[in-house]
Amino acid sequence: MYENRFWIMVVLSMAVLPSASAYINVDAINNADTYVRSGQNTTNYGSDAALGIYGSGAKMNTIMNWTLPSGDEDITEIALTLYCQNWDNFPATPVELHVLNEPFEQYNATWSKRKSSTDWTNTGAEAPISMNSTVVDSIHVDSEGFYTWVLRGPDASNRLDSLSWGDTINIALTLPDETGFRGIQCYSKEWYYNQPYMVVTNEVPAAPHIIDVTTASVRKTSALIRTITDTPTVNVIVNYGTNSSDLNLWSYADSLSDTSYNLLKSLTPNTTYYYRVYASNYIDNTYKIDSPLLSFTTDPDGSYIPLVTFVFDDGWKSTVDASHILNDSLFSGVSAIVTDMPDISPAYMNWTQIQELQNTYGWEIASHTTSHADMSTLNKSRLESELGDSKTALTDKGLDVYNFISPYGAYNYLTEAYVMRYYDSDRIVSDGPIAPPYDEFPLYARHIQNTTTLSEVKEWVDSAIINNSWLILVLHRIVDSNPMAEEWTGDDLASLAQYIESKGELRVVTIREAQTTSFDYKGIYASTATRRIVNTVYPDGTVDYSKTATGHPGINATVLPSSDPVAVDITLWNKAGDYKIQFNESSTNASNEVRYILGDIKANAKYSVKVYWSNGTLFQDLYINSNESGYLSYNTTGFENPRYTVIQQTALVPSYMAIAIVAMVIIGGIAFILIARLKI
């Protein structure tokens, strides 16, 4: 439910566009970054994903080494940007940038040493010798987000005008005036997004304008916020939370685009969230603007029971064999299709086989990109084409496509925002099962390979039952024997299906079914020609199933025992034609009274309800009219022995006609006697 939208009309003739000679160069190389910490004199943090800058309570200084790109254009500004968060508490004093006079080694630098065998002149890379005492720039960091320190440019405190193309510089970030336990941590180059970057440009930075903010998509546990700005040289972040006066969560979008998408994940279903968008200039993030406070409400949730989903990646031809094996247990699955493969290679299914999976066997078809590309390595243009073109290819073949499967399970925070623009979820290959409520981006799974034993997978199934979770199983090729990498045998798949079939607590579902259907233990299900299911119904309406109800037809029936449970096995339930119903039933309580409310039968019709002992002896014989809505209701008791019930329309003459016929017979008989006497 989208509750707010922020929209500004911009007069295009007033937009300020960069000149043809303007440039923004982001090719500076971050050769090394780490931090050193007082009290941890011999500890190196060169592999950490964070850079610490902290006050006197636990003194930390960040040190970096950068090389500027080559070039010959005029330079207006050189600026360093980091994405920072609080460490304990945000500092009350500015974070200072200084030139670092002494070189260091990223994986050897400590509070005591700058290289493996060389000490700092001033421990901790401090001033006045190890670190230059002059403050190049200082920034007050008081909330999460992007922060920029200017090295050369009009906004620097003491600009380094001599810094130019191709130069290498060592710098330090420090909080010299901060006392107590306050500081920040910023992402290092070891983190996989929002890494430090340095810009060289001839542009003069200015605050961007937000043209439009929209809640582009909302699901149970995720939302996608779209922001349009007047320039692509922006960073866009979203601050959000459930308390409008205390927004405590943050989301980042891909940079350098005038249309940004922020993924908000791990949300609570049926909950109102408030958010504010911040757009800052990519060159110098000090220049920024924010939107009004907006809101949305996540989709409501349903009930949860343990689920299992079979997903077969890549569209191998052996998926057809898998569909036959699973169909024997009345199960369907999900096939993830690489759309460049069908009708190209004989190792893969053709389009007819893929369509048959959906239309005959009830499978879900998911996108697996056009070329099986690693999503985490793609640029924006490739991301768009792999996601959009694959969906178009599938829908053009008449396939219903809702969900995405990341090749290799490769993803990151930013690729997930792109995926949500096209699909309802993204399944990866690790970290499953999933506990409710289910996060859609990503969906975690368990990967079955040739080294995975049947007993291991059975343990995963049992764990899903115990923890009431959703187990998504990832498979690839199915072979007869001697499985190699990414293969599993058909015998093991059949044994696993039979094991899952025996678990009444489970449902086998597609991804789409898990997202759109609420499952519980209250429905009544009928047996099929090949698979029998017994519904043990309790007085509170809950049901224990003798096996998984997956694949069994749901019956429009309510069975309400008065005291002890009653076991019901529905063997026939005709919704048309003769509307005949037949079921077996039993209870451990001989005097148990049970009320039946049976639907999907012919309205306003007379039915015969005959209850037999299991030996064929008629025990009860009832005649009941169905109501105008097609429901039949009655009560019965007597469970001394197992029994079965047969319900069908009766050909008996309606009661008013029967009375008329009896009356006519009586009148006719009297008339006959009178005539006979007159003749005498």
TrEMBL record:
Pfam families: Polysacc_deac_1. One of its GO terms (biological process) is xylan catabolic process. SUPFAM superfamilies: Glycoside hydrolase/deacetylase, Purple acid phosphatase, N-terminal domain. It comes from the Archaea. CDD domains: CE4_DAC_u1_6s. The keyword Transmembrane helix applies. GO terms for molecular function: acid phosphatase activity; hydrolase activity, acting on carbon-nitrogen (but not peptide) bonds; hydrolase activity, acting on glycosyl bonds; metal ion binding. Residues 204-301 form the Fibronectin type-III domain. Signal peptide: none annotated. It is found in: Secreted. The keyword Ubl conjugation does not apply. Coiled coil: none annotated. Gene3D superfamilies: Glycoside hydrolase/deacetylase (3.20.20.370). InterPro entries: FN3_dom, Glyco_hydro/deAcase_b/a-brl, NODB_dom, Polysacch_Deacetylase, Purple_acid_Pase-like_N. One of its GO terms (cellular component) is extracellular region. Keywords: Carbohydrate metabolism, Glycosidase, Hydrolase, Membrane, Polysaccharide degradation, Signal, Transmembrane, Transmembrane helix, Xylan degradation. The chain crosses the membrane at residues 656-676. This is Putative xylanase/chitin deacetylase. It comes from Candidatus Methanoperedens nitratireducens. The lineage of its organism: Archaea, Methanobacteriati, Methanobacteriota, Stenosarchaea group, Methanomicrobia.
